[in-house]
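Standup notes
- DV: blocked on the single-chain target, sequence here:
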Amino acid sequence: MATTIFREMWLPKNETCESSIDLQRFLHYSLVPSVAIIIVLSCLEKRSRERPIDEKWPFLRRRCGILIPLDFVEAFANRWSLAFAFGATASKVMILFSGGCLPLQVPRWAQVPVILVCSMEVGLSSYPFFICLSTLSQITGALLGFLYTGSWFIVIVLNIAQCPHGQVVGKYEKILFYWPSLLCLVFLLSRFSHILMKTLWVRLRQDLPSEETSFLKIHQAQYVQQLMRKPPRLPLQKSWIQRKVYEWDPDFRFPSRMICMAVLALICLYLFVMIEVYVGKLVLLTLNILEENFETLIAAQNTSEVLASSVQRLKEFIDVTEDVWIFTTFTACLTSVSYVVHILACYRKHMKRLWAGKKQFLPLATCKLSHSVAAIARYSGWQIAYLVWGYLIVHIVQCLFGVMLMYILVLPIKHGQAIEAVKSLGPGILTVAIVVGLMVLQTVTATRFFLQPKISPDDKEKPLALDNRKAFHNFNYFFFFYNVLLGLSACLYRLLCSVVVGAWLIARIDRTIMPKGYEAADMDFRVSKKARTRWLLLYTLLNNPSLSALRKPK
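- DV (later): unblocked, structure below
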């Protein structure tokens, strides 16, 4: 059923159309109004202090300041508006993907600079979305932002209306790729309209109190008040969603960079899944052609039963892999979406621990200040990239396990070979049971016969002191050869678990996939060996003050 729906949706149709609006060309043309908006708002932006240029040109009055698209550190205003502004840029990224950012034949060494220029072009074209939201000149910013956003919305809608199909995915390609950006543009239009009407209303009604900016945010003050209250005597009953998934905290607000990261990660994940579906369509077409060629060969020639059975197995493998791939697409998507929610929950938990002065969960070695500042700039982009590539890796791993499960359990039952499958699995299950039983036997025997009795009847465990030493040495000798063979199986099991857990957690930056002692190889753990050494030196000198006099001077 899933295969039939997939083929009806994604197999190419004989529907061709061409739109008179070239979005890639409009992207180039949009740089002119974008630069104009930047110049206008920059002229209205005031600088924090006077410069020598103000003495030379007094009419500036500290004007012509540097615009800030958004604060990546501690901004809490316009969080969702900035997040949807990032979502609106997804359409421009898709323009580069569909039209190609290498219009001319350039040498391979020049491709990276050209791609950098193309990305800078997309950033410059999207810059008005952010500065119109963040500028202090709200009337001008809202008016210019509404006109600029509206022009992009109209152009994209006209392009889709003239030709909703495409040459890559096929039917309704542009609708599938551009509807997230259109939704974000509609949100920005409503937001700019709200800012414009609200600001005009405040200007007309001058008796209304103006909003004052405070150093202490409201939610931060509420959090401190909540800490000062007495905790309730009986703990509140929490639902399963609050205990296992996510619990809303009214006294905590995520900064804009976390909200932007979450929204843009979900949109990029959706676009990546659409691209993956397209690649799956190409692979499906290739496999279907291969299958039809084999069937034609069998029908045209008097082939042997071995070749016919091989073709039948190939057809079954194609069908099984296709169904499992489609099913695991949904499970991998749910896993990635749950990671986004979990990342936000972990961020809130870690921030509350830092506010309380608890730093035990951090690496022992702190980073240099320059590394921390650079990490702030890298985090959002790296997290989105890790989430997208992590989805692909998790999808592949889930698909492999799904195909194994189908061949081990489902297909034998489908072909009426359930008893034979159980018989084939029986020796393996029995072997595992014997291995686990012997491991338990070694532990129980060592605890019961080779440890001295409890010192006090109230002790929970026996002391770590050997008893029956001669029997213990003989026990170790004879089990030594068996443990060598058992260690091989344990080594393979350990390697398999490392691969599965590492692939599962590749999208999680808050957890390192490297073993203890090798965290420095993980670029996202950011451990400084110099800082670790200094910390150990400080710890040693604090516990041994007399060593300070013996240290070598600089």
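- Follow-up: Residues 305-355 form the longest helix (51 residues).
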